[in-house]
Predict the 3D structure of the following.
Amino acid sequence: MDYLLQMKNMRKDYAGVTVLSDVNLTLEKGEVLALVGENGAGKSTLMKLLSGSVMPTSGEIYIDGIQQHFKNPFDAIEMGISTIYQELNYYKDLTVAENIYSGRLPVSKKLKKVDWKKLNSDAQQVLAAIGVDISATAVVNKLTVAEKQLVEIAKAVSRNNRIIIMDEPTATLNTQETDSLFQLISRLKKNGVSIIFISHRLEELFIVADRVMVLRDGKYIGERAIREINREEIIRMMVGREITNLYPRKVSHIGDTVFEANNICGGIVQDSSVVVREGEIVSVFGLMGSGQTEFFEELFGARKMDSGEMKLDGKTLKIKSPADAVAKNIAYVPPERKTTGLCLAQTIHQNILGASIDRYKKGIAVDQKREKADVKTMIGKLAIKCQGAKTEVKALSGGNQQKVLLAKWILRTPRMIMINEPTRGVDVETKTEIYEIMDSLCQEGYSILMISSEMPEVLALSDRIYVMCRGKINASFSRGEATQDKLMEYAIGW
Amino acid sequence: MLVLIVAFTIINPLFFRWSNFVTILLNASIIGIFASGMTLVVMGGGIDLAATAEAAVATMCMGCLYTRGVSIWVGCLVGLVASTICGIVNGILIAKVKLTPLIVTISTDMVFRALAYSFTDVKTISISDPNFYAFGRMYIFGIPISVLYMVLAFSAIAYLLKYTTFGRKIFAIGGNVTASYFNGIKIENTQIRVYTLMGLISGFAGLVTAAQSAVAAPITLTNRVFDFISPVILGGVSMSGGKGNIFGTLIGCVLLAIVANGMVLAGLQSYWQTLVKGLILIFAMCIDAFRNKQSYV
């Protein structure tokens, strides 16, 4: 059997951590392959290898049986592979035609000036060929999200690309737009274009896909023709890992309600409520992009909340900015420590004190003795491995950076600490240390509200778990009730 | 620095004399006062290209009032208030309206400078008040008073950066404004205070300049703003903020003053001197760029 595309034994390591190992993928002409898996299963990495934006550690890619070595995205495009990312890449102030032909505008023979007539008529033809009713001279920024996506598809078609990767194309579309996208996909199929379709919306796969392939924890789990599988079975393949208890929690004493958020709405977040009690770790689990981060940022005042109310220790809580939240002694550890969490070029000392500057005021100056002593205590308490407090944070390992980030907030002895991705990009050893830190914080009576995209982490650490799906919290489980299947079931929705 | 001193001494032995060193410090002093404030601004991730225009506003407020018979000291005080208000305007445009510091201060530079001209209808005012001369030209133990002002300004800013919560916040914001926002630091408030202080310091530097030359001229210090941005960058304050220290700036100021003085004594044409100044600024920025290597990804 001749495949259009074959990926063999694909492997990718980042700094010694394997994110993808021994994954094989085949694609036939005119086939729609659905790629599914949890957060961090390796779908995006696999597609980045195929689109040339990331180089594999090892593995071979064949197109029409000929081995390819993609060094950059242009090589992949050259071979007929287009990617339509979730975050669309387009020049917002240029026209549809200019976007479709960006980098290869037709030029006149003599003066090498852009041949606008040809450009616009070519573009209009491509749009007509895929049955899309958009003017080639419209400015892209004026289009809807769905239309922008169609422009991206038109771009791929205009290059005669034979493989189109669609990364969650329906996440931002309404039902009608989704339907017309599916119609377009079936037209493309008839023209012999193959599509790799990534989606968390399983019900869509049964409409659009021919075959489904499941990845989990960077490994190939299996594949089936779509006719031979049902929704339950896909979920089982997605989450069916061995349950090994990642981290055994010490028994903690759970006290009264500390924090309450009721009917929070704003942006993607709809009508979501949480309760956190003293000494408790509460998780909000959801698939990537379901609104968990937005929810936390609204609670912390970094993002505007349309409606809803919050209470801290039974008292109404008004928070308009992070400064308000910090003043009320609520802490937030953001997921991107390099961009929103730490000042990388500055020292451990400066970073740990970053959220507590005003606490060390003594007269008009700051109490440097107390600062130094407290920083030393935190470095010891969290076992941050470093030369000393004057070390620049960028010189530390990911795990130690994460500890500095935690130390910054623990120093404030917050009433509630929100942690978004406690162990992202952290080595295995430090992960366990961070779990221990979080556990002992609970023993000391702290309350933790957490987001993690790693399900084993959520299951091991949480006393209670809320599940968020498309911006809405739709289920809550106690420690005993929660299972992988149940969480995934509600996270996917329907 | 030693290399420079030796080189200039070889070219012109007059260079290596006590009186010449005093001259160098004197030349460095006004620049130094500006540079102390600019260190704060750059440390916080900003820049103030309107500083010399703020100085001119202070000077011309004073000059204008002086021609109407108001006491020179009251004039100075009003001048300082005026330049401080200029700083607040910069601060609000940058922190609240969230405009780019570079563009804001290029624009306000024009506005402030024009206002300074308007106060006396372009006229330069001579000031004949011995006490005012003393304010700018006095020597204490053989050291010009303006050098002492510079030392005072640097000490004050050094203290502010190292020992106050305000200084800590400037470092934090310059280091990573998003992280600082999540740390609960009031970004807008801090930024406005930085530009306000810069306005005050610029006004003071303008008044000292006026006292030294005994005139209040609206053209004062025009096109001199990079004379005190260069030493800040040369001294190791990162252009993107958050790193560096005030002593680097001080050394930068003295170093540039030595170069300027040495070039004069070496008999270089003024355009060559300008060229060297430009090259030094480029050199300083390159070092800064290499130190904070950026990639596209």
Chain A touches chain B at residues 300, 302, 321-327, 332, 334, 339-346, 350, 353-355, 357-358, 360-361, 364-366, 368, 408 (CB under 8 Å). Residues 5-239 of chain A form a domain with the Rossmann fold fold (CATH 3.40.50.300).
